[in-house]
Design a protein that fits this description.
The chain is mainly beta. It has six helices and 30 strands. Helix content is about 15%, strand content about 35%. The longest helix has 16 residues.
């Protein structure tokens, strides 16, 4: 008799989707698979908690030679409200559609001259960008096929150390204990990114791999009554496991903000470990993990986290029913922290690194996180 509580298993349809994804990955796995080993002597976490997810190493293939297209060309296959990962460095603005990242999880790229890895874990709904230069060595990353706290475990090809994506920390291997620098990024609607960056670059569907881009192999995964796949930890009951949060770490302190609460106020000011911040929320972005066709998924919105200071002065923001404005000048601001109208037009707030993710994942890695109520 199966004594597992009903909520500890994903719904049948989700289990089928995940099994299908694993079978696709196995069928298209590299002929010469990478061999990864877990040396308990170097492990910083219990080795039994690093779980095979189904695909072999690089069975979910990272994109190592990304090709980019213009906004106009990408508009032929991206729908207005589809989610993209936005990343910019030294004026080089790029969008990485989740309809592509959901099948590859890692893009090893160079943006504005900086080597970066843009990553996405569908099981945690976490998009994070990392500086892949560590102590003078440029690393490139692959998918290990393993999970830790249901999160993507990456490996670097230089040492084959294993890395937890949510932390950007090596948890097994030669580099165990090392951390990658997290760079600010955000998930937002294609329409909003396109309007902000009409000359920007968009990751192309020409990846060198045959995948049904635009389809979601995790259909229904982020349903309210769902539960994380292969999650062995004890879920923090302060929120439902799959509730979406905006999460940020400043030094040794971490805090999470339920997205559902932000959708009402649109703006929230706070201070974390001495760092003033402001969170913006904008409607109009759909989930990548809801319907089988991403473009038909339900709306979940988008967020941005910023330092509210500009020219040494701390601005106060509010949503006036029409737009986000600063009280000092009345300028209008978009979800990317750019003033689009008013005296401050064209000025930008400093972005702070954050992650939009599921509560269970953030709480598993940051069990002492403060929860905004």
């Amino acid at each position: 008799m199966d004594s597992t509580p009903p909520r500890s298993r994903p719904p049948a349809a989700i289990a089928v989707s995940l099994a299908l994804l694993a079978s696709i990955a196995l069928a298209m796995a590299p002929a010469r698979a990478v061999e990864l080993t877990i040396d308990p002597k170097t492990a910083l976490v219990p080795v039994q908690d690093i779980i095979p997810g189904g695909p072999p190493p690089d069975g979910i293939p990272p994109i190592d030679r990304p090709v980019f297209v213009s906004v106009k060309e990408a508009g032929r296959w991206l729908r207005e409200t589809e989610p993209v990962v936005a990343f910019e460095w030294r004026g080089d603005a790029r969008a990485y559609p989740l309809q592509i990242l959901i099948w590859h999880e890692i893009v090893n790229d160079t943006v504005g001259g900086k080597p970066v890895s843009v990553t996405y874990c569908p099981l945690c709904n976490s998009a994070l960008a990392f500086d892949r230069v560590l102590e003078g060595t440029t690393h490139d990353f692959g998918t290990s096929g393993m999970l830790y706290h249901s999160d993507l475990v990456m490996y670097d090809r230089q040492t084959r150390s294993l890395w937890a994506q949510m932390e950007g920390r090596a948890i097994v291997g030669k580099l165990a204990g090392k951390r990658l620098t997290v760079l600010p990024t955000a998930i937002l609607a294609w329409r909003d990114w396109r309007e902000a960056h009409p000359q920007g670059k968009v990751l192309s569907r020409e990846t060198g791999h045959n995948r049904p881009y635009g389809r979601n192999p995790y259909a229904g995964y982020d349903a309210a009554d769902s539960y994380p796949f292969l999650f062995k930890g004890k879920a923090d009951t302060r929120l439902r496991p799959m509730e979406r949060v905006v999460a940020i770490s400043v030094g040794e302190q971490a805090k999470a903000y339920p997205v559902a609460a932000l959708s009402g106020t649109r703006v929230l000011h706070d201070i974390v470990n001495g760092q003033p911040l402001v969170i913006f929320y904008a409607p109009g972005t759909v989930s990548a993990l809801d319907q089988a066709e991403i473009a038909r998924s339900r709306e979940v919105g988008a967020t941005g986290v910023f330092d509210p200071h500009l020219d040494g002065k701390r601005l106060a923001f509010r949503f006036d029913g029409q737009a986000i404005r600063d009280r000092e000048t009345g300028s209008t601001w978009n979800i990317l922290g750019v003033a689009t109208a008013g005296p401050l037009t064209g000025r930008r707030l400093t972005r702070l690194a954050h992650v939009d993710t599921f509560w269970f994942a953030w709480a598993a890695f940051k069990p002492h996180t403060a929860l905004h109520r």
